Amino acid sequence: MKPGRQDREPATWTATRAGPPRCGVPGPPLTRFVSSHGGRVSMKRLMKFGAVAATMLFSAGAAHAWLLQGNVRCADWSPVIGATVRVVSTDPNMPFNVTAVTDSTGRYTIHLLEQPACYHETLEGVNGGNGGYLEPVAAYYDFCTKDATTIERNWAIICPPPPPPPPGKEGKCWMTGGGQVQIRTGLHSYGGNVNPGCSPTAGEGGNWNHIAHDLNLHFQGRAIQVVRCGNVEGIPAGSTSPKTPYNFIEFTGTGRLVGINGNKASYPKVYFFGRVEDRAEPGSKGQRAVDAKDRYFLQVYSNPANPAGSTLLLVDQDGNPNTVDPVAVLNGNLQIHVTGCAKPRNASGSQSGDLDLSASSNVAEGRAWLGAVTPNPVATHAIFNFALPRATGVTLHVYDIGGRLASDVADDVMSAGSHSVDWDLRDDAGIKVSPGIYFVRLTVEGQTLSRTISVR
């Protein structure tokens, strides 16, 4: 630095024009800048300085961060929980390999690099079911970060059916009974039937009534479906009167809730979930063991997307709508039945024997197989043999020669492999069918197979 240079005032710049302006007409464009120290610089050079300064200012600001998020769902919009989403950078100079696991709503979130980059996204922990991926059909996403700070990538897959229940733990049943419970909201009375005769179509699945005496409310369940039948952990399996392999039933459906005795409440359509436990005999009065008393749970709500937040009526031990805690029965009796329900002899998926050549060929090609009915003609019991290429939903129906449904023999999820189902020649009402020709129809994933049977 030259002597005395540090004593000079900082330079200021003044723009000069190529010529004077004319009246009413803008003057010529600025062509140079003149320093207070006498120096000049061109407009081109000044713009270059400005660009450099702007770049430095942008770089000194906050870093640009990108967020990747989305949902993983089945074709029926139900969430896929616990699926792993993996995102990998496709630029070898920008290493990035991160995974995220979907939560209870099927949603995931991944924070990407703070610099623009390109990525490859895949889904792990699921196989896409029988039909693979619906979105994206290629089973992966390739994308780059540029402008938007939030990137949404959703997945939709054809989910495989749930596995069949363990043998002897869950299956089909129906329920009858009634009684009373006493909880913090007062006295409650209830009764009716669920899935009568093990027929989901009889009376729209049954009828259930519940009166909350102190709340002046009357609930009527009018369309009912069984969720599952099984056994309560910690107590002996099954029930004794009548003798069945199960001691609890869970059911759901729709109905209405109205006020009584001056209560003006009116909900023409509500949703509900119930659970009944047939633990022992007697189920209430006379039963000294607390754990042996029958139990009952009911939750009535107005919004199926938010049952806990829209609960209108709740029968539960602790009053928490997020948990199922059945209450011990005060008076009454609840009974679980299996009469009329299908009894698959091999529903657990264990092999009943080697598949014959035709069955093996069909299963290897991914198709179901229905064997000949034995014996045929039949007088007392018929055996239906079939094989499945994978775990899936199965319906096995018997129709009379006029095309009318004679018996819903099986309607359940079964495992891959060979199966044998016994039919006692009774219809859904429990009455033995008349002699004649009948048709057996097996339906699996849109595939329908038929056989003929002669009843003597």
Automatic annotation (TrEMBL):
What keywords would UniProt list here?
Answer: Membrane, Transmembrane, Transmembrane helix
Question: Which SUPFAM superfamilies does UniProt cross-reference here?
Answer: Carboxypeptidase regulatory domain-like (SSF49464)
TM ranges are 49-68
Q: Quote the InterPro entries the UniProt record gives.
A: CarboxyPept-like_regulatory, Secre_tail
Q: Where is the composition biased (Basic and acidic residues)?
A: 1-10
Keyword ATP-binding included in the entry's annotation: no
Q: Where is this region: Disordered?
A: 1-20
Q: What is this protein called?
A: T9SS type A sorting domain-containing protein
Which organism does this record belong to?
Answer: Eiseniibacteriota bacterium
